[in-house]
Design brief:
The protein has 346 residues and is α+β, with helices and mostly antiparallel strands. Helix content is 28%, strand content 18%. Helix 5 crosses helix 6.
Length: 346
């Protein structure tokens, strides 16, 4: 094996702890998009203010003729604001276990990322955020799997409220189990010394790659659980010697370029398209070891983006152009040191 491939392989598999993979739940075992129907009182969900979380009963039809009883709740923070989105992201809770014959077998509750606004162009932002998850899946199995779905939203009168792309996000507990780990409930924050260096470095480089600044690997908002747009997992859960941060929620990324996205308070950038590396300086050696794995992604991205149903050529081209800025920054180790690592934290 060539030296640069050995380095890439070592960087991808080394987390400082032993773990093994097991198969994903049926919903996340394939990438082919689903065609589903959700029937519920959607006006009750869309009318709710950002501080209300009504729960409405509904039926999810998975295309096989099976209707599954579910409870739906609006979720999120920014996308709950009516000034931002007309349609909220949804939490889907199953009433009883879906049958073994259903693609939703084994699921208890799921996050469904929705289209935000009625304009058809908002489909593209949904699909670009979905693409970000798929890119990270290619870098590591320690990532959230996602399943695209074309969803017919039907109100209780039988009227189709909307027919748009959305996607389900794998439950954090299933991400952990699939990788021989457990979800780690860490409180508001934990010491950076407990982060798995390679996994934390990969996390930071990936967020820089897609231009996302809206995250914190080991700290959460005051009074809330750790962390911000990151789920900690580990061998032994919270007692693990090293904690693996798993990123999610990429709608504020420059690659997605959602019209409502703004930089986080206190980060010195003028807009979300401006990259800034926020990985930890103590992980710079691990970041350097990961460069070959990231550079190898450039050749795979056009095919990945082209494979996503509904993602138009303009959106694909703009995403590739934006990501090429990252690959220019990481073209050589010297370039990466000058462009990326110089703003590392701590």
């Amino acid at each position: 094996m060539r030296p640069y491939l050995l380095a890439a392989f070592a960087a991808l598999v080394t987390t400082g702890q032993a773990w093994s993979q097991s198969p994903a739940q049926p919903l996340f075992a394939k990438d082919a998009p689903l065609k589903i129907t959700l029937k519920a009182d959607f006006p009750a969900l869309t009318r709710a203010s950002a501080d209300q979380t009504p729960r409405v009963s509904g039926i999810l039809s998975d295309g096989s003729g099976q209707g599954l009883s579910v409870q739906l709740q609006p979720r999120g923070i920014t996308r709950r604001s009516k000034d931002v989105c007309q349609f909220p992201p949804i939490r889907v809770r199953f009433e009883g276990a879906p049958p073994a014959s259903s693609v939703f077998a084994g699921q208890k509750q799921l996050k469904l990322v929705t289209h935000c606004r009625a304009a058809l162009g908002f489909n593209q932002y949904t699909l670009l955020e979905y693409s970000a998850y798929r890119i990270y899946n290619q870098l590591t199995p320690l990532s959230f799997r996602v399943r695209l779905a074309l969803v017919d939203y039907v109100d209780n009168s039988g009227k189709v409220v909307a027919s748009r792309y959305g996607f389900f996000i794998e439950d954090a507990d299933d991400v952990a189990k699939r990788n021989g780990m457990r979800e780690a409930n860490m409180g508001e924050r934990f010491a950076v010394s407990r982060l798995s260096p390679t996994d934390a470095a990969r996390f930071g480089l990936f967020e820089y790659m897609i231009g996302n600044l809206d995250w914190a690997m080991q700290a959460g908002p005051a009074g809330d659980q750790c962390c911000h747009n990151s789920k900690p997992i580990g061998v032994g859960g919270a007692a693990a010697q090293q904690i693996v941060p798993v990123p999610y929620d990429f709608d504020f990324a420059g690659m997605v370029n959602a019209p409502y996205a703004t930089p986080p308070f206190g980060v010195p950038v003028s807009n979300i398209r401006q990259r800034r590396y926020r990985g930890l300086c103590r992980h710079n050696d691990q970041a350097r070891a990961l460069y070959p794995a990231f550079r190898a992604q450039r050749a795979q991205l056009p095919a990945l983006l082209a494979s996503i149903p509904g993602l138009d050529r303009s959106s694909q081209s703009k995403a590739i152009t934006y990501l090429d800025g990252f690959f220019a920054d990481i073209a050589t180790d010297e370039q990466a040191a000058a462009k990326i690592l110089k703003t590392c934290l701590g």
